[in-house]
Design brief:
The protein is α+β, with helices and mostly antiparallel strands. The protein folds into two domains: 117 residues; 142 residues. The chain contains five helices and eleven strands; from the N terminus they run αβββββααββββββαα. A hairpin with a 5-residue loop joins strand 7 and strand 8. The two termini are 25 Å apart.
């Protein structure tokens, strides 16, 4: 596992996460009109660029991407891996964001259809949906959230090579989680028979905190044992609405040394993967 970046036990991150979520949704809405549609909506998902500390779209032409730059709470247009244009989100409406993106892309030679917010799925409400302007979170909170996103990215990128069918590590704009999907077994038609998923989620109905998770799926029904497998690293199971192993980031952040935080994460992930594989095997 690459070195874990020390995280701090912040309690008031929800508002900043929501603002970033809606900014990321704007990028996904652009991808919706710029990229060929995929049945699983993967054309709208985002990667993490550690050098820029940014969520980035798929490439529009092998060299141009949109980016959500965490440290400056701004959008950027990346050309040949460099930020060529940037736009501070604070003080601007969602309509102004789309206008800026459309203008810059047209200057770069792209033909774009009118950009509108995607409505295929719902995300938590934010004032920008009714015409309000974005407000920038504090720099300290943006830096913290960037470290957390970076940790998740590097953690899962390190794990992926261990599994031949593993997906890329991506952030999905509907749930805003950074995750890795790992098919374990396939049939002769290359259809998935079972899988596990790893991710870092934002606060939701299962955990009122950002959290790491490992879950599982099987085409054949899974009969859960009365006693679920033990977990290490201070993780625990959730069983309401879905079954998965979770580790709140506040539990990690309570430890005041980055090496201890890294050890807890490693122990949790290893035990949770082992437990999930045991449940679907």
């Amino acid at each position: 596992m690459s070195e874990w970046k020390f995280i701090t036990p912040y309690a008031g991150l929800s508002a900043a996460i929501l603002s970033l979520h809606h900014a990321a949704h704007s990028i996904a809405s652009v991808a919706e009109v710029m990229l060929p549609h995929q049945a699983d909506d993967s054309h709208t998902n985002l990667g993490w660029n550690p050098a820029l500390q940014a969520l980035v779209s798929h490439s529009f032409d092998d060299k141009c991407q949109l980016a959500l730059l965490y440290p400056s709470f701004s959008l950027g247009i990346i050309v040949d891996k460099q930020v060529q244009h940037s736009f501070a989100l604070s003080g601007h409406t969602r309509a102004e964001v789309y206008e800026w993106i459309g203008t810059r892309l047209a200057e770069l030679g792209f033909e774009t259809a009118p950009i509108h917010p995607m409505t295929r799925y719902e995300i938590p409400l934010h004032p920008v949906t009714t015409g309000a302007t974005f407000t920038a979170p504090s720099e300290i909170i943006l830096e913290e959230l960037a470290r957390r996103r970076n940790n998740a990215h590097t953690l899962f990128v390190d794990i992926a090579p261990e599994y031949p069918y593993a997906s890329d590590v991506r952030t999905w704009p509907h749930h805003f989680d950074t995750g890795l999907y790992i098919p374990i077994r396939k049939n002769d038609a290359q259809e998935g028979l079972n899988s596990i998923g790893l991710g870092m989620a934002t606060p939701d109905g299962s955990v009122n905190d950002m959290y790491l998770y490992v879950n599982h799926w099987s085409k054949a029904p899974v009969v859960l044992p009365t006693q679920l497998p033990d977990l290490s690293g201070e993780g625990y199971w959730v069983t309401e609405n879905w079954t998965g192993a979770v580790l709140p980031l506040s539990t990690i952040a309570a430890h005041q040394h980055h090496q201890k935080q890294q050890e807890i994460v490693q122990d949790f992930i290893q035990s949770a993967i082992k437990a999930s594989l045991q449940l679907i095997w």
